[in-house]
Amino acid sequence: MTTVAFDIPLHQSEYLSEQQKRQYKDQIKALLKKEDAVLVAHYYTDDVIQALAEETGGCVSDSLEMARFGTKVDAKTIVVAGVKFMGETAKILSPEKRVLMPTLEATCSLDLGCPIDKFSDFCDEHPDRTVVVYANTSAAVKARSDWVVTSSMALEVAEYLMDKGKKILWAPDKYLGGYIQRETGADMLLWNGACIVHEEFKAEGLRSLKNVHPDAAVLVHPESPESVIQLADVVGSTTKLIKAAQTLPNETFIVATDRAIFYKMRQAASGKTFIEAPTAGEGASCRSCAHCPWMGMNVLENLLSSLKSSNLEKGLNEILVDEAISKAALKPLERMINFTLSG
Ligand code: 13P
Ligand code: SF4
To answer: CATH fold of 18-106+295-321, please?
Structure first.
């Protein structure tokens, strides 16, 4: 397996004045209405985007709920503020709807690190294994899989398959895969991918920070390295971490996931204190510094532009998925949705 190199986009800077933000927001609200469109945003997008989704009757959630919301909502157009795999998932699950994204350039290191040709060879080499892929993959990789899961249901699906005596081929996140393996004891063969944001969290720095805040609870997304997960009080999906912030009695939390999640954590648990888990320390390069550079590409300017008629006519921001791939990927994606609904 070879490592895939990719460029990381620069963070978008917040340089708009409050008045300019209001103007942008008003124009976007009007166009959402005009186009019968709904805004669906991930917890890792910037505060202003999450707030706009809330103010316009859209949804702010984790990747699984984003997918489910898209299938339930009546609007003709879904605007996905997140990364490419989320837009593709929305389109595959609702092919009759128009799916737009503020930028089609927003991707994910897990998706980039799992190209379909190499992944397909890997699957061919292990025909005895059930192929389970993380939602953070291309439509083509999903089409080659038996199951698609998100972090909110990965453990349960692994247990379900284990009970059926299945061996698993897992891709692409080696840390999430390792976590599932350790928790369930499932027989899993892992692809060598990683999230550039979560991979940066450092156990050594986290230990020191815990010493400074001995009463803080540590919340960790399972895309983080094992040494960081070992220090966690709660490990789980973005939604699980927000719930933990709300329900645990602690007043302070050290959070090892994208810091944009603080917007929702502060809403869910107002008055509590949230501290970023450290990315500094030995070997630190801080390429993302606890904020996904691709999620950060969703800004008011390109959101507005994606909804302008001249761009809509040209299909500039529209997500399209090859028909054969879409058909094949629908099966494991529906399994994901149905498993969650019944499980
Ligand atoms: P969630 O499924 O928890 O929303 O995570 C998606 C993701 O990209 C995490 O980095
Ligand atoms: Fe991908 Fe990591 Fe960004 Fe999530 S935070 S979209 S896993 S690069």
So the answer is: Rossmann fold (3.40.50)
